[in-house]
Amino acid sequence: MSRALPLLTARGVRAQMNTLAALQMVAKRVGTPGAALLQAYRPREYAERVGGRSLAAAGCEPILHMRAFQRTRRLPDALVQDVLARVAR
After folding, report:
1. Do the Cβ atoms of 16 and 7 come closer than 8 Å?
2. Buried-most residue among 14, 52, 65, 78 (CB within 10 A)?
3. 68 part of a folded domain
4. Closest CA to 46 of 31, 30, 29, 58
5. Based on the domain organization, do 57 and 34 belong to the same domain?
6. Are residues 83 and 57 in the same domain?
7. What b/e sequence results for 5-32 when a residue is b if at least 16 CB atoms lie within 10 Å of its CB, and e otherwise?
8. What does the pLDDT look like over 46-67, one tens digit per residue?
9. Domain carrying residue 12
10. C-alpha span between 16 and 22 (Å, rounded)
């Protein structure tokens, strides 16, 4: 089980990032001087490329295939084609 990151509220109270209250707190800070406090939670950016695509795009592909499989209960055509193309090499 993953642990949620704590986030300090305006009153210095710790809130969990996965609560509605924490989401509302973050949304209120966007576009204000408090937005600077959110920089610590910004995802790290990677310059590396995988197959000509960003690391984030390449990393999302298996997740999207899994979601499609869960939704349709069959392997997505894009995944099947990708596997077949790799086997053919």
Report:
1. yes
2. 65
3. yes
4. 58
5. no
6. yes
7. eebeeeeeeebeeeeeebeebbeebeee
8. 889 988 999 888 999 999 999 9
9. 6-41
10. 6
